[in-house]
Amino acid sequence: MRSSSSNQHIVNFGRSRQTPPLSLLLLCFVCVVVIIVVLGSTSSKSLEGLDTSAIPDYYNNYRRLKEQAVSDFLEIRSLSLGITNTREFELCGKDRENHVPCYNVSANLLAGFHDGEEFDRHCEVSSVGQRCLVRPPKDYKIPLRWPAGKDIIWSGNVKITKDQFLSSGSMTKRLMLLEENQIAFHSEDGMNIDGVKDYSRQVAEMIGLGSDAEFRQAGVQTVLDIGCGFGSFGAHLLSLNLMTVCIAAYEVFGSQVQLALERGLPAMIGDFISKQLPYPSLSFDMVHCAQCGITWDKKDGAFLIEVDRLLKPGGYFVLTSPTTNPQGGSLNLKKVTVSTPLEEFTESICWSLLAQQEETFVWQKTSDVQCYASRKEGGSTPPICKADFDGQSYYQPLRSCLSGTTSKRWIPIQNRSAGSHLSSAELEVHGIQPDDFQEDTELWRSALRNYWSLLTPLIFSDHPKRPGDEDPLPPFNMIRNVMDMNAHYGGLNVALLEEKKSAWVMNVVPIRSANTLSIILDRGFAGVLHDWCEPFPTYPRTYDMLHANGLLTYFKSENCEVSDLFLEMDRILRPEGWVVLRDKFQAIEKARSLATQIRWEARVIELQNDNDQRLLVCQKPFWKK
After folding, report:
1. Beta-carbon neighbour count of residue 288 at 10 Å?
2. Residues 413, 364: Cα–Cα separation, whole Å
3. Does residue 262 or residue 73 have the better pLDDT?
4. 503 closest CA partner among 519, 529, 483
5. Are 133 and 139 spatial neighbours (Cβ–Cβ below 8 Å)?
6. Distance between CA atoms of 355 and 346, rounded to whole angstroms?
7. How far is Cα 124 from Cα 566, in angstroms, rounded to an integer?
8. pLDDT tens digits for 171-227?
9. Cα–Cα nearest to 365, from 415, 412, 426
10. pLDDT for 221-252, tens place per residue?
11. What are the C-alpha distances in Å from 618 to residues 60, 142, 458, 590, 592?
12. What end-to-end distance do the CA atoms of the chain give, in Å?
C-alpha cells in the first residue's frame, strides 16, 4: 500500500511537467525500489526473525501492509538472482498414486537381472518418467494423530484389497480387523492378543532376562525387524523404548512397510537379495526375523554374513521359522545332538546358539574379536575381509567375508552407554570433540523450539494477527514421522526426545557427505545412508515433516537436478505435511521458487543471528479430487 502511494506521487509529479527528463523518471523509479528495500529489511527483522536463545516473538507488528512490501522485495531479489517464475508441475495420473521408483520388475528383467535380482532396487535402469506431483488416492484421509493412529488407520490410505487382507496369515497380520473404511490393530493395552507380548517375553527369557522390560539392561537399544508383517512386534518394542526399524521387500499390494509407516512406526523398503543394506558395519543390537521368508543358508551363507556385518559385538539374531526347527522345543542347547548346515555355519562365524524353543532360535554374536583368529580355516569358513568396507556399504554387492572386526567401534553392546548421550571415550572413537558435540546438541534444542512455533497454517495467512507468546503452540503430537534429510549427529532427534514430542526421526546421511551414520545409530536412533540424486526407498505419503539443514548447498555439488529432489520430497510427504529447510540465502531463494512450482505454501524466515542463513517453511496442500 505504501509503495502504491509512492507510485501515485510519481504520477502527480509527471502531470506538473509535460515532458519530464528520462533521467528524472529513472531516479524516481530507483527511489521506489529503495523504499521497498527499506520496508523489506525492517519488516523482515521484526517479523521473520528467529531468536536462537528463547521462543521468540516472530510476528509482533506483522501486518498486511508490511507483508506486501516484503513480498515485493522478495520478488525483486529473485529476479536479481536470475530466478524466474515457471509453470507449476502437473498432477500425476491415478496409476502413479502408489508409485515407488527404482522397483520396476519389467525394466529390471529387460536389463538382464534374474534369480530374484529383478525384485531388487535398481535405480540405474528405471526411466525418469513423467515429472509430476503424485496425488493421493480418492479415499485418502489425513491420518489420526499418535497414539490413536497406531491402532487405527484409514483403509483408503494404503494399497491392500479385502482378499489380500483375508488371506494374510502371519502373526502380526492376524492382529488386524477390517471395518468399513478403517483397519484396526489390537492395542497393546489390556489382553495379550495372538501372543505378541508373550512372544517378546519368550525372546527375553531365551536371552537370559527376567522379562522384556530388561532388554535395555542387556544392551539392546536398536532392533532391525526383517519382514515385520504390519509392525505389531515393533510397536510393542517401541513401547519398551527400543528403536525398532522395519525393513521389508517392495510389494505392489499389501505392503508391510506402507502399513507400518501409516501406523507411525519406523520402516523402509529393504531386502536380502543381492545387495548390502545401506548401513555401516556394527549398526544394530538385535536383528529379528519371524517367518520373514528368507532362506538363510542360501548363497553360501551370504545373508547370514550380512546379518553378522550389521550386528554389534554381543548382539542377538532372533529367528522364528518352522522350516529351521530340526529338534522340537528345547531351551538347553546341550540337549541338541543333531547338527544342521545353519548351525554349522553360525559356529563358523563365531555365533553361539543361546537357546531354542519351539520354532524360535536365538544366536549371539561373539564379543571377543580373537574368536575369528581361532577358527578352522578353509571349507565353508568365511574369511576376514582384507579392507574396511564401512565407507562402501551403500547397496554394494553382498560380501562373502566378515567385516567390522578391525573397527574402533568394536565395543560389546553390554559395555555401551545407554541413551543418546555418549561418553567422551565413545565420542573419541568417532573422532568427535565433546565440545563440538555439546554445541551441536544446544543448537538443535534452540532450533526446535523455534521450528515448533512455526508449524501452523497461520504463518501463510494474510490475517493481521500472527502467532506469538499469547497463542498456544502446536500440540506435542502435531507430527509423528519425521525425516532429517541431512542429519549430521542426529541433534534434531535428540531435541524432539527431550521436548517429549511424539515424533520419531529417520536420520538420513547423504553418501558423499561426512559419514556420521555410525554415531547416529550408536545413539540409539533410526538412520540410513542415502544418495539424494535417487528416490528414497519408501512409499508415497509416508512422512509428516521433512527437515534439512545445509542440504541445498551440499546438493549444488551433485550432478542432478534440485527440482527432482523437490518432486521426491513431495512424493514422500503427506498432504498437509511440513517442510523446514535451513540454508544459505541464495539456496533458499531458489528453493522458494521451486516450492511455488510444487504448489506448496511457503514463507522465508530470516535468522536474527546469521545474516547469511534463511529458513524456508512450507506446507503441502491436500489436493482433494
Report:
1. 24
2. 11
3. 262
4. 483
5. no
6. 14
7. 20
8. 444 456 666 788 888 654 433 445 889 999 999 999 999 999 999 999 999 999 999
9. 412
10. 999 999 988 888 999 999 999 999 999 999 88
11. 21, 18, 12, 14, 9
12. 37
CA atoms within 13 A on the CB side of 610: 14
pLDDT at 214: 96
Q: Are 295 and 265 in contact (CB under 8 A)?
A: no
Q: Is 181 exposed, middle or buried (0-12, 13-18, 19+ CB in 10 A)?
A: exposed
Helix (H, G, I), strand (E, B) or coil at 260: helix
Helix (H, G, I), strand (E, B) or coil at 365: strand
pLDDT above 70 as % of the chain = 76
* Separation CA 137–CA 546 (nearest Å): 21
> DSSP letters along 277-340, please?
-SS-SS-EEEEEEES----TT-GGGHHHHHHHHHEEEEEEEEEE-GGG-SS--BS-GGG-----
Instruction: Give the chain's largest Cα–Cα span.
Output: 110
pTM: 0.83
92 backbone dihedrals φ, ψ, rounded to 5°: -70, 165
SS3 assignment, position 77: helix
For residues 309 and 399, the answer to whether their CB atoms sit within 8 Å is yes
Strand pairing partners for 258?
A: none
Determine which helix (DSSP H) or strand (DSSP E) holds 22, and give its type and residue range. Answer: helix 22-47
Backbone angles phi, psi at 238, to 5 degrees: -60, -35
The number of beta carbons lying within 10 Å of the beta carbon of residue 546 is 25
Does residue 356 sit in helix, strand or coil? strand
Q: What is the b/e burial string over 416-446, where b = at least 16 CB atoms within 10 angstroms of the residue's CB?
A: beeebebeeebbebeebeeeebeebbebbbb
Chain segment 416-470, per-residue pLDDT in tens: 887 788 889 899 999 999 999 999 999 999 899 888 888 888 777 655 444 455 5
Distance between CA atoms of residues 375 and 358, nearest Å: 30
In whole angstroms, what is the distance from residue 351 CA to residue 345 CA? 9
Residue with cell 527437515: 547
